[in-house]
Amino acid sequence: MNQPAPPTASLRPARRNWLSLSLRTLLVLFTLLAIWVGIIANRARQQRRIVNALSQYPNAMIMYDYQWDLSAGGEIPKARPLSPPPGPLWLRNWLGDEYFVTVIGVFLTGDWNRNSDQPARATLEPIGDLPSLRVLSLEKSSITDADLAAIAGQTNLTYLWLDDTAISDAGLVHLRRMRKLKYLYIRNSNVTDAGIDALKRDLPNSRICYGRGSPNKIK
User: Could you tell me the domains of the chain?
Assistant: First the structure.
């Protein structure tokens, strides 16, 4: 009379299948983790490269997310209480702060009396690679209407300063895709009421301050 097979014999294939499934799952997880780490590292290196390039510009100021609270609203960004960057100090010293902080603002404020302080198109182009940029100031610079094309892709901007520039209605066309723009300051420039009205139709939720002298015009 045949004896039934031991119970453990029937469990071996299932156990092997379970182990195979677990190994495949771990492989997938490690692959996804490696991809995620690669994306973070690439983003951090790119941000470091851009910050280093912009830092060569006199009077440049970089704003980071842990320093400013843009959710507070208002006509100007609100500074957070002073604090060190997030993340363990030993890890920041090893990897660099750019792995833990995000650039949200760039100030390239110029000076009419110092030509070296005026940004060129090449200076502005790296700004297009800052996906989290919310604040940009180019006031008192020699930026031209054509130069604004370099920042046309920054559709997440909330604040933009173009005061004391030669920007005219021709340059405003580059701002029409910035639907999240809440505050545009373009005082003492060459824009006209007609140009501002056309821009306002594309950016109905923006507060545009323009005009020469005082009081300023607001739309």
Answer: 9-218 (3.80.10)
In the chain, which ranges are continuous DSSP H helix?
Answer: 7-55, 89-95, 121-124, 169-172, 193-202
The residues, any chain, with a CB within 8 Å of residue 11's CB and separated by 6 or more, are: none
- Reduced to 3 states, what is the DSSP secondary structure of residue 178? coil
pLDDT band at 141 (very low <50, low <70, confident <90, very high): confident
Show the 3-state SS of 78-101. EECCCCCCCCCHHHHHHHCHHHCC
Residues 170 and 207: their CA atoms lie apart, in Å, by 19
Residue 145, token pair as written in the block? 């209407």
What pairing do the DSSP bridges indicate for beta strands 103-107 and 135-137?
Answer: parallel
Is 136 within 8 Å of 114 (Cβ atoms)?
no
- Verdict on whether the full-model pTM lies above 0.90: no
Q: Residues 69-114: pLDDT tens digits?
A: 988 788 889 999 988 998 888 888 888 888 889 999 999 887 645 4
Measured between alpha carbons, how far is 122 from 119 in angstroms, rounded to an integer? 8
Distances (CA, A) of 26 to 13, 30, 32, 39, 95: 20, 6, 10, 20, 26
10, 80, 85, 100, 199 from 160: Cα distances, Å: 70, 20, 25, 25, 14
Strand partners, 62: 106
